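All the exercises in this workshop are built on plain-text protein records. A record pairs a protein's sequence with a compact description of its fold. Backbone structure tokens are a discrete shorthand for how the chain folds in space. Once this layout is familiar, the rest of the handout is easier to follow. As an example, a complete record with its sequence and its structure tokens follows.
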Amino acid sequence: MYETKKNERALLVVVKLDSEKDDWRIEDLVEEFRNLVLSIGIDVVDIEIVKRKEINPALYIGKGKAYELAQLAQEKNVDVVIFNNDLKFSQQRNLEDILEIKTIDRTQLILDIFSNHAHTRAGALQVELAQLEYLLPRLKGKGIMLSRLGGGIGTRGPGEKKLETDRRHIVERISKLKSELDDLRKYREIQRKKREKEGIRVCSLVGYTNAGKSTLINSLTNSAQKTSDSLFTTLDPLSRIIELPDNFKVIITDTVGFIYKLPPHLIEAFKATLEELNYANVLIHVVDASNKNLDKLIGVVNSILKDLKLENKPTILVFNKIDKLEEFEYERLKELYPQAIFVSALKKINLEILLSKIRESISLKLKDVLVRVPFSSMNVLDYLYNNSEVIKVEYGAEEVVVFLRIEDKHLAYLKNKIVYIEEINFS
């Protein structure tokens, strides 16, 4: 994979259409776009905001504005123009003809960031698939017009040599990548069924990019997963074991951060990772409490979860980075979101409250049970230890009395054995 050229000088273009119906202020869109570009090591020279009633089919923006940008790029010695919008191939080509420098769109930018943070084979496969599916419609004749790009941002990944092959080879490569990802999906399914058989619970972290999910998982597990202020630090699925109250252990998984207008085919490419969320017992939605647009960030994540058909999954809302809040900001958030948990992953504040909440959430389908096991049926005891949470054991003259929490499906198995079962309440 090609390395992004550091310190490229970029002119950013944010196009706001009158027809766009959202509640994001243009200033917020600009700030987020700027942070995206800075996260990949590019210098932002200037930012142009363009307001239009409708898209120009040939250039996306007006011809006059395109020539203005060309002059500005020349005056400021710009290496690349980056649009915070998705451009058609013809629009991108026409803009480059006028600007006479490399021009990329939002999807190419995000793909480049993704490629920079894909460190496992699974992550690399998913990024390459997304790149090739983005490039395929842009192929013309025997290859894509990349001669003017000269490397740098927007060209990371499969590489020019591969992209200059014909369309058939690109299609074959996409097919091979999908096949490898299917194998990965099947392998994860085997792992998943093994966890289910062993009664292991899973909770998954979700949230807007840079919400502090990796820092949170580090603090909960005392591990050292890579963290950064950069966006999309975690692309590859990460799983760790955490210990909850009552010595109850669960697996916690981290996932790729979401973002506003995340290109649909990126979600499609990462299905092998995101489908793991379907099998989580509970989702932990992590929010950056210090972000002034946190209500919008929550909305973006909820919208993506809805697209993934996960809106009804049990979810714990967690506001992270409370150490950055003033007291009045903290109190206001607690009033607005009374059911949420408020933590600082970095300072390890209120983590025990979060662990208790996770414990409570994954116990909703468990029943408190007393089981009397005669010595003649001691094999049942092994089953209880493997498939339930044993709270206490008392040994009598002819039997073992076990206090435990257990799922209905395992309780049904016990009812077919020669044991006495009584539902009780430990609280």
Notes: The CA atoms of residues 287 and 295 lie 9 Å apart. The chain is about 40% helix and 20% strand.
